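// run 5 | inverse folding | seed 20
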């Protein structure tokens, strides 16, 4: 890149508040399949082209313009606070993409195993049970299988609602997933929904709803809403920890982890 091009790149066009700056970056970055591909596209450009450099410069420009004429100490504190907010939002985008990928990978393995388990149950002894014990064991096996399907279904809802809550709370409802994460997540959701559909019709020897636990609850106080809020809190904390590490504030990052450990 020419020196003129580098100077143009270093000069940030416009000034944006934290959320606006991160969303502007995200809109451009989502043209790539993932954050790695986006990073590779600017690998040979000056450091000023890095996402956090661009975001930080835009946010700083907005704060300095808004607080022009204020005391220097007040201005610098406002800049640090706004840039910190932007770093948190940037890290939140990364965390939510990581969460979608990891859930699709790990829970996808569980869903696949559950599908094979169903095949084993269907491929078992045919014909009516030969004894009451045999009948009870078959019913118990299917009830256990269906409870796992219920858990997979509920976990999908928890993850989806937690991500939507964080997107609405911090990112103006913008969809944060890159193409590869969105594809992985959609595939996992489709697979789990298919299992759920099969669970509604496969129930040898018992009514379709017999023995099923209500989706979204696993015990007293363990409601779907409570699980969603717990995941929202954990993912937001993960983003804060990553942001504090980026900003060099290890003490605050450690304090969050200590709080989480203390709360169990």
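// decoded
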């Amino acid at each position: 890149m020419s020196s003129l091009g580098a100077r143009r790149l270093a000069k940030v066009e416009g000034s944006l508040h934290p959320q606006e700056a991160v969303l502007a970056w995200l809109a451009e970055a989502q043209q790539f399949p993932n954050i790695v591909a986006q990073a590779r596209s600017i690998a040979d450009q000056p450091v000023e082209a890095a996402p956090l450099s661009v975001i930080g410069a835009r946010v700083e420009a907005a704060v300095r313009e808004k607080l022009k004429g204020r005391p220097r100490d007040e201005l610098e504190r406002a800049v640090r606070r706004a840039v910190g907010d932007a770093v948190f939002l940037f890290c939140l985008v990364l965390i939510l993409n990581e969460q979608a990928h990891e859930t699709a990978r790990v829970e996808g393995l569980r869903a696949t195993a559950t599908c094979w388990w169903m095949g084993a149950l269907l491929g078992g002894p045919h014909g009516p049970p030969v004894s009451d014990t045999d009948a009870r064991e078959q019913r118990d096996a299917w009830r256990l299988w269906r409870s796992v399907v219920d858990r997979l279904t509920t976990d999908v809802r928890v993850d989806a609602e937690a991500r939507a809550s964080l997107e609405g709370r911090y990112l103006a409802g913008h969809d944060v997933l890159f193409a590869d994460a969105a594809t992985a997540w959609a595939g996992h959701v489709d697979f789990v929904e298919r299992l759920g559909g099969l669970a509604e019709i496969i129930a040898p020897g018992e009514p379709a709803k017999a023995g099923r636990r209500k989706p979204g609850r696993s015990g007293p106080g363990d409601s779907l809403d409570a699980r969603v809020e717990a995941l929202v809190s954990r993912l937001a904390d993960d983003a804060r920890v990553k942001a504090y590490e980026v900003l060099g504030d290890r003490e605050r990052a450690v304090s969050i982890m200590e709080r989480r450990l203390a709360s169990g």
